[in-house]
Write a structure and sequence with these properties.
- About 20% of the residues are buried.
- The protein has five helices and no strands.
- It has helices at about 5-20, 25-30, 35-50, 60, 80-99.
- It has one domain (about 5-99).
Length: about 100
């Protein structure tokens, strides 16, 4: 993955910026770029979720997402993936206010 990361992250930021942070548009833009589309879309969606919160995820997409299994990060087992978006947004807002 190390050889793909520089391109995937750059494309994800490009998709996120082109979509002006809109979750659906960022993810779809990233997917349609091709290349390492799943990684690029995941990063673009993570950026949009972190800056816009769980409300930005389209409802029809949100219902298809379930709790994390914890296979990569055991501490996340049972946590709903969408809760992480709100946790990140709250942390970012708190840090911004403190600055």
């Amino acid at each position: 993955w190390a050889d793909l990361a520089p391109e995937a992250v750059a494309l994800a930021f490009g998709a996120y910026a082109a979509a002006d942070g809109d979750f659906r548009a960022a993810v779809l833009t990233a997917v349609n770029m091709g290349r390492d589309a799943d990684t690029t879309a995941a990063v673009a969606g993570a950026l949009a979720g972190a800056t816009r919160g769980v409300a930005a995820v389209p409802e029809e997409w949100a219902t298809a997402i379930g709790p994390a299994r914890g296979s990569c990060l055991p501490s996340m087992a049972g946590r709903h993936v969408l809760d992480v978006a709100d946790l990140l947004l709250t942390a970012a807002e708190t840090e911004r206010r403190a600055a």
